[in-house]
Design a protein that fits this description.
The complex is a heterodimer of chains A (about 675) and B (about 150).
Chain A: E1 2-11, E2 14-20, E3 30-34, H1 41-53, H2 72-77, E4 83-93, E5 99-110, E6 116-119, E7 128-135, E8 138-141, H3 145-152, E9 162-164, H4 165-168, H5 176-188, H6 191-209, H7 216-261, H8 268-308, H9 310-325, H10 335-344, H11 358-369, H12 377-430, H13 434-485, H14 490-532, E10 539-544, E11 550-554, H15 566-584, E12 590-593, H16 601-614, E13 620-624, H17 631-637, E14 641-652, E15 655-662
Parallel strand pairs in A: 3-13, 3-14, 9-12, 12-13
Antiparallel strand pairs in A: 1-2, 1-4, 4-5, 5-6, 5-7, 7-8, 10-11, 14-15
Chain B: E1 8-9, H1 16-22, H2 34-47, E2 65-66, H3 72-86, H4 95-118, H5 122-143
Antiparallel strand pairs in B: 1-2
Helix pairs in contact in B: 1-4, 2-3, 2-4, 3-4
Classes of the chains: A alpha/beta (about 675), B mainly alpha (about 150).
């Protein structure tokens, strides 16, 4: 099946557009629609899913989810009382000459106050859905179009045909086993089997419940089993929610981790803390420096005067030596003592020293020869001691100054090193948006913690599920034993055993189908990937194990999934999707939005070369930005390109619209 | 008997502004004792051989600091200058004369000191003083036959 034409009327930025896509039966099965970001490429995919399912599954900005789908320009130009009809029609081509036209319509009326009121239709979302099928040259109206559409392109697997290329490379990073298992189960279409199992389970329960006249013990056991089954289902449902939350937390963790890895500066909080600590250190060191300098200066002004007047000190000491050697120091008598004798006119020997006497004259002569030094003996002695200390200090000056200067020097060096480190941090941080990076770091920690908490909760629930399942098993055995005791319950027992056997068989069949599909997908993914990847001697196989974990083994046998480049991951993801497509048996067109967005130049060209080989004979529509559709990429796609369009933005005074122009 | 020491040490009136300036916040001597500044000025004056006789009316009558604040070490340095200036130990009995000599040398050294100090940051001044003092120490050692070995 393929889409011949998409017709848009008043749908989002498109007023009136008809887009013919490429015919996969021709060699050129690829259609390229190029447009700038925001031009409306993704809305072409949204138009397809809206037409088929009444949902726009690829809104790039979640805030537009509640936004009306009608074209704003048309609504502005409408007069009160006018109807705006939003319409998306898909003209499908099926096997042979069978065709189908699917049309979904939403009607709005412009009110007097200028608001747009939706006129409800038949479908749940208020739209009207119609489908015409051309069967054996006759157009037939389908009475239950949604039912038919779900058979042709089931909603549960549409994401493997209409997908966002930018999310593909994350596919194998976000708890890949959950993604893989989900995909395999959906493709296996085992939902019906599961419904059968659930139904048989209920029938088995009701067999005893609805039968009257059984012993209270049997009733009690049956009620217990029912209650526990309800609890078990509740645990299973809760666990599923927790696992989904865990997957989302893991995805967010990856997202923020990548954002931080792509920054020049990582761990900005650490750098901030380091900077603050360095500033504190510098403040402390500057204070220490002032103290050290002050200590040194204090020392210098203490010893400085003594050094500057060294000659004076030497002279003082010399004069003291001379006084000592001349007998002046220590004196025989102090001058003041002899002067006192004269004053008292009495010598120490008792001789009177009257005025004019010879004795007095002799003493006066003696006094005249004496100097004041004799009275200064004690003071000079003390000064000698102090001068001796000053001389000793002189010997220590060099080493003391050296020590002080070293301390000062070390502090200065420390300050310099820390200042340089601060400057380095500032330079690093200046090159990025610090606040944003801090937010990312905080978000990363939050999601890491959330994931850890959820893992713990899931583990606890798994234990509970296990215990409850075992309990139920035991209770069922007890019930069977009780029923066996009652003769009238033998028929019941047979029915119950039959139900249990059917459930067992159905589960076995379900598991076998899922396992077969898993193996099939593994083989096809591996084959596809190895066939087309450009590194021919690097990888040996792709494995999807029993737990749905995917591995890409290199030739040494080691897992290389984590080291695949963005381009290689894209090829792996596309190979996987191609395998899903093939195994599912559904022949549905492929629409990929921005597959080459995150890939660098050379791998982009390589991917463009390989894309047509992944989905041969299948209609493929690529929605590309101008950055993706480089000349090299166009050259690679050209031989397979049936149609090429460009979305142009056209502005008017009252708004804008997008036009899809054929190139 | 020798006379008693003067209670107060004086500076020249015309030098008061310089001494005050050197004790202000931006000077390395900020927070230091007045006698420390006085001794540095005195030692500078002696080292440069500059002594200025301070006439009777030229003294700052408010006084600069009290004698009792001098430490024995500082007092000895003042006496050494007076002894070197007079050439005799006799000067030691003339206490007032000792301090007059010291005040004269302080007056002689204050302007050089002010020029040196206010022209530098404390760190530069310290480094300059370190160089001067270490040179003086080495010169003394050489003069007296001491070696570095």
């Amino acid at each position: 099946m393929w889409i011949e034409e998409i017709r848009l009327t008043n749908y989002r930025q498109y007023q009136e557009e008809k887009i013919k896509l490429s015919d996969p039966n021709a060699k050129k099965n690829i259609c390229v629609i190029e447009g700038a970001n925001g031009a409306g490429k993704t809305n072409i995919m949204n138009a397809i899913t809206w037409c088929l399912y009444g949902k726009e599954l690829h809104l790039t900005n979640k805030k537009y989810e509640g936004y009306p789908v009608y074209n704003l320009l048309a609504s502005r130009r409408a007069k009160p009382g006018d109807n705006i009809i939003v319409e998306v029609e898909l003209a499908l081509n099926d096997v042979g000459s069978d065709k189908a036209n699917i049309k979904r319509t939403l009607t709005y009326r412009k009110e007097v106050d200028g608001t747009m009121r939706q006129i409800p239709g038949i479908e749940k979302d208020g739209s009207d859905l119609s489908m015409m099928r051309l069967i054996r040259k006759n157009w037939i109206d389908c009475p239950q179009p949604q039912f038919v559409i779900d058979k042709m392109i089931p909603d549960t697997i549409q994401e493997y045909f209409f997908f966002d290329g930018e999310r593909l490379e994350l596919y194998f990073r976000d708890t890949s086993s959950k993604n893989i298992k989900g995909a395999v189960e959906k493709i296996s279409q085992v939902g019906l089997l599961q419904k059968l199992i659930d139904h048989l389970d209920k029938v088995s329960d009701d067999i005893v419940k609805t039968h009257k006249g059984l012993s209270p013990k049997v009733q009690e056991l049956q009620d217990l089993i029912s209650t526990k089954k309800a609890s078990l289902q509740s645990y299973i449902d809760e666990t599923k929610i927790k696992k989904d939350d865990m997957a989302e937390a893991a995805r967010k963790e990856t997202e923020y981790s990548e954002k931080l890895q792509n920054c020049k500066v990582q761990n900005i909080s650490q750098l901030d803390a380091e900077r603050a600590a360095l500033e504190d250190d510098i403040t402390r060191l500057e204070k220490a420096l002032i103290e050290a300098e002050d200590k040194e200066f204090q020392y210098l002004i203490k010893v400085g005067p003594a050094i500057l007047i060294e000659d004076a000190i030497d002279q003082y000491l010399k004069l003291i030596d001379i006084a000592k050697s001349s007998g002046q120091l220590p004196p025989e008598y102090r001058k003041s003592f002899i002067e006192n004798l004269l004053k008292n006119k009495m010598c120490i020997c008792g001789t009177t020293l009257n005025e004019g006497s010879n004795e007095r004259k002799a003493v006066e002569e003696y006094v005249n020869k004496m100097t004041a030094v004799s009275d200064l003996e004690r003071e000079i002695l003390v000064d000698c001691g102090t001068l001796g200390q000053i001389e000793d200090e002189r010997n220590d000056i060099e080493s003391t100054i050296k020590t002080n200067v070293n301390v000062i020097s070390r502090i200065n060096e420390d300050i310099k090193k820390k200042s340089e480190r601060i400057a380095q941090i500032d330079q690093l941080v200046a090159s990025c948006n610090k606040d944003e990076i801090k937010r990312w770091e905080a978000a990363l920690q939050e999601y890491k913690q959330l994931k850890t908490n959820l893992l713990s909760e899931v583990s606890q629930r798994d234990v509970r599920i296990d215990l409850t399942s075992k309990d139920i098993e035991k209770n069922v055995k007890d019930l069977q034993a009780e029923l066996a005791k009652e003769k009238k319950a033998s028929e019941l027992l047979i029915k119950k055993e039959f139900c249990e056997e059917c459930i067992k068989v159905a589960k076995k069949v379900k598991d076998e189908i899922v396992e077969e599909v898993r193996r099939d997908i593994e083989v096809k993914t591996s084959s596809q990937f190895l066939d087309i990847i450009w590194k021919k001697n690097t990888y040996s196989r792709v494995l999807i194990d029993d737990n749905y974990n995917i591995f890409v083994k290199d030739i040494a046998g080691d897992d290389a999934l984590g080291s695949l480049s963005a381009g290689e991951t894209l090829i792996l993801a596309l190979s996987f999707v191609a395998a899903l497509n093939e195994v599912s048996g559904f022949n549905i067109p492929i629409v990929i939005d921005a597959p080459l967005g995150k890939i660098s130049r050379i791998p982009k060209i390589q991917c463009a070369k390989l894309l047509p080989l992944i989905f041969p004979n299948r209609q493929v529509t690529l929605l590309l930005t101008e950055e993706e559709l480089t000349q090299d990429v166009r050259n690679e796609l050209k031989p397979h390109m049936g149609k090429e369009y460009s979305i142009r933005f056209k502005e008017y005074p009252d708004g804008a619209e997008s036009k899809v122009m054929l190139i | 008997m020798s006379e008693s020491e003067p209670d107060i040490i004086y500076i020249r009136k015309s030098d008061k502004a310089s001494f005050t300036r050197l004790l202000e916040k931006d000077s390395p001597f900020y927070g230091k004792k007045k006698q420390q500044l006085f001794l540095m000025a005195m030692a500078t004056g002696f080292n440069e051989g500059k002594k200025i006789e301070i006439g009777v009316g030229e003294r700052d009558t408010g006084g600069f600091f009290r004698n009792e604040y001098l430490s024995p070490r500082e007092r000895v340095l003042i006496k050494a200058i007076a002894v070197a200036d007079s050439g005799s130990l006799e000067i030691l009995s003339k206490k007032k004369e000792i301090y007059k000599i010291a005040e004269g040398y302080a007056a002689g050294g204050i302007l050089s000191l002010k020029r040196e100090v206010l022209g530098s940051e404390i760190t530069d001044l310290s480094r300059k003083m370190e160089i001067i003092l270490l040179e003086a120490v080495n010169k003394y050692k050489q003069k007296n036959g001491d070696t570095d070995e």
